[in-house]
Specification:
Layout lengths: L1 H36 L13 H4 E12 L3 E8 L4 E14 L7 E21 L2 E16 L5 E16 L4 E16 L11 H10 L1 E2 L7 E19 L4
Antiparallel strand pairs: 1-2, 1-9, 2-3, 3-4, 4-5, 4-8, 5-6, 6-7, 7-9
Length: about 240
């Protein structure tokens, strides 16, 4: 009996609270309508979240430039602080394990980055973000013998977005680890001209490893200029 009375009292209290909140919201809406009809400026309802919490980084696309290459880059927001970035790059895999075994192989690759992104400041219509996370990459050398790469890396970056101009600038650094695999029975690219062959070996296959699979470390510094779209979300 006591339990039933206690439950009934709690339900009645919740209904009363709901009625008060509903009535207050209706009164707030009526008051805003009256003030707007008189041409007066009205602030947003107290039930809406702060303006900063409603900002949502929706999309950006543009050109990613590395020290020795580059390619298109796309970033898309999943939530307020979660973004995915996809890069298509033509660049060198440069191994820094040691000077004796150092090499460089020019590759086409795609990388998928999973990032936490946070806006830490906004001044004069410019939003400032920092981001960190990690990524996976896969690629293949430009010429034969085809060398395949599978890699992973941490990701650290900064970005500032000009919201009015819908333009953003991003800089990031990605120290990484890569596993190299060589295609079986792949014949080297045949170049008869000795000068062209010299540049081919120097610029596309500088001192490649002889045994595979091979693992090594590299680092990438990237600068990107992109069209961006940042929106406001008013959902509670």
């Amino acid at each position: 009996m006591k339990r039933a009375l206690f439950t009934t009292a709690i339900l009645a209290l919740l209904m009363m609270c709901g009625g008060v909140v509903k009535g207050h919201v209706q009164y707030d809406n009526i008051l805003q309508s009256v003030l707007l009809s008189k041409g007066k400026k009205v602030s947003t309802s107290c039930y809406l979240p702060p303006a900063d919490s409603m900002e949502f980084y929706k999309f950006s696309a543009g050109l990613n430039i590395t020290a020795l290459g580059g390619g298109p880059s796309i970033k898309y927001g999943i939530s307020k602080n979660c973004v995915f970035q996809t890069d298509f790059l033509s660049d060198y895999f440069i191994n820094y394990t040691s000077f004796a075994s150092g090499f460089a192989i020019y590759m086409n690759e795609i990388s998928q980055n999973f990032l936490f992104q946070h806006k830490f400041s906004e001044k004069r219509g410019v939003s400032y973000y920092y981001m960190f996370g990690g990524g996976l990459s896969g690629g293949v050398s430009v010429f034969r013998p085809y060398i395949w790469k599978i890699g992973t890396y941490p990701f650290f970056g900064l970005e500032f977005a000009l919201k009015r101009q819908k333009l953003s600038f991003q800089i990031d650094i990605r120290p990484g680890y890569g596993l190299l695999l060589k295609s079986a029975n792949a014949k080297p690219t045949h170049i008869q001209n000795e000068t062209l062959y010299f540049f081919y070996k120097a610029f596309f296959y500088f001192n490649p490893p002889e045994q595979y699979p091979y693992h090594g470390y590299d680092i990438s510094l990237n600068f990107a200029i992109k069209f961006c779209k940042i929106i406001k979300r008013h959902a509670l």
